[in-house]
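Students often ask why inverse folding is considered easier than folding. One informal answer: many sequences map to the same fold, so there is more than one right answer. In these notes we will look at a single instance of the problem. The structure comes first.
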């Protein structure tokens, strides 16, 4: 056999290996893995692992070279340089693994990269020195999942970035606010690590320039439709957020939270924006034209004198107990309505509107106290039931 014949046979063997490897890769399922290893010289059953091939959850092929699979001597820099020339990149983190990714339809390209790495980086002469790729159909043995305790929000954010980079195969960037933009649709959203709690939070702004009271009514009535999602209204904007607790960080929990958030954005963001924009302004509190006749005079007196005399208030009510009690019922209804509005506004995070409703409720309670004083004054006055003796002129 001439040298040319040997080279031709060698190239044919690697070509057959590449085609077989591509076929095996095409059979991987998301999360599946395949190990490329050499046959040990001591003929033991275990091979010397070199590379691990996987199909990620985003349906991209990934070839990973673990740092422990590179020589620890002076050959290491040359191996790393050759890997970089083939398109590998070093992952962030202390492990120092190298990976290269291709699309699902580029299975032949991935197989070619593997063959080139075997021949040029590890100098494998012939595929016969390799164990047959395995791991396609063999179930993985149960493993103990370990979580990471984050020291602070910066450490937690770095763990999230490392997970996202490994998942997507592309670098993850943090904006000037220390947040990670998420490619959600139809609205953009962001991810941030909370400083006060060991958690990460996804958030977005669903709508701008909405009527606070109308949107608050919609949010209060429909907020429970989206478990785990917090809706709030601040400065005329409808905010949505989802918090993922990370006291012990694990990628599986993180991805579960991302899936909830992504589903919410895809399925409900447009609906919430449309409903909040179309929500009508809540009617203002009942005005004086809708009040019981004569109550406006009591309100004018109370507004001008915080310590209105009971007899004076009773005189404005014509010393009529039934009238005072009718005014009391109306004021009590308004006070309850304001307290209910306050709770609804606080539930959706509209603090300014809640404070206005609370102040209005306090004013109604003050009127109720003044009317109560007037009722007690009726028990001690001889003018009860005789408005003409009160010395005041009344109009109806």
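Output (designed amino acids):
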């Amino acid at each position: 056999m001439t040298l040319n014949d040997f080279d031709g046979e060698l190239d044919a063997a690697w070509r057959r290996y590449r085609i077989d490897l591509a076929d095996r890769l095409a059979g991987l399922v998301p999360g599946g893995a395949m190990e490329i290893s050499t046959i040990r010289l001591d003929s033991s059953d275990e091979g010397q692992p070199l590379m691990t091939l996987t199909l990620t959850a985003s349906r991209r092929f990934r070839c990973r070279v673990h740092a422990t699979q590179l020589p620890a001597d002076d050959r290491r820099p040359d191996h790393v340089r050759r890997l970089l020339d083939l398109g590998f990149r070093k992952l962030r983190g202390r492990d120092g693994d190298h990976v290269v990714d291709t699309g699902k339809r580029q299975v032949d390209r991935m197989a070619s990269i593997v063959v080139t790495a075997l021949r040029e980086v590890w100098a494998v002469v012939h595929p016969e020195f390799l164990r047959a790729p395995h791991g396609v159909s063999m179930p993985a043995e149960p493993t103990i999942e370990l979580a990471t305790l984050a020291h602070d929000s910066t450490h937690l954010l770095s763990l999230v970035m490392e997970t996202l980079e490994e998942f997507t195969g592309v670098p993850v960037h943090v904006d000037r606010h220390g947040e990670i933009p998420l490619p959600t649709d139809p609205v953009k959203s962001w991810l941030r690590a909370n400083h006060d709690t060991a958690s990460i939070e996804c958030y977005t702004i669903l709508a701008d320039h909405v009527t606070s009271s109308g949107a608050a009514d919609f949010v209060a009535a429909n907020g429970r439709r989206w478990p785990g999602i917090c809706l709030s209204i601040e400065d005329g904007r409808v905010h949505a957020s989802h918090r993922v607790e990370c006291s012990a960080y694990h990628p599986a929990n993180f991805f579960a939270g991302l899936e909830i958030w992504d589903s919410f954005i895809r399925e409900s963001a447009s609906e919430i924006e449309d409903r909040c924009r179309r929500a009508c302004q809540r009617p203002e509190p009942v005005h004086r034209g809708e009040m019981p006749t004569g109550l406006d005079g009591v309100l004018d007196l109370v507004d001008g004198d915080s310590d209105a005399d009971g007899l004076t208030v009773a005189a404005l009510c014509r010393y009529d107990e039934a009238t005072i009690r009718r005014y009391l019922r109306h004021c009590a209804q308004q006070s309850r309505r304001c307290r209910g509005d306050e709770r609804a506004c606080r539930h959706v995070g509209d603090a300014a509107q809640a404070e206005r409703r609370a102040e209005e409720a306090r004013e109604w309670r003050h009127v109720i106290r003044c009317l109560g004083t007037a009722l007690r004054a009726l028990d001690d006055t001889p003018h009860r039931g005789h408005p003409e003796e009160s010395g005041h002129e009344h109009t109806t």
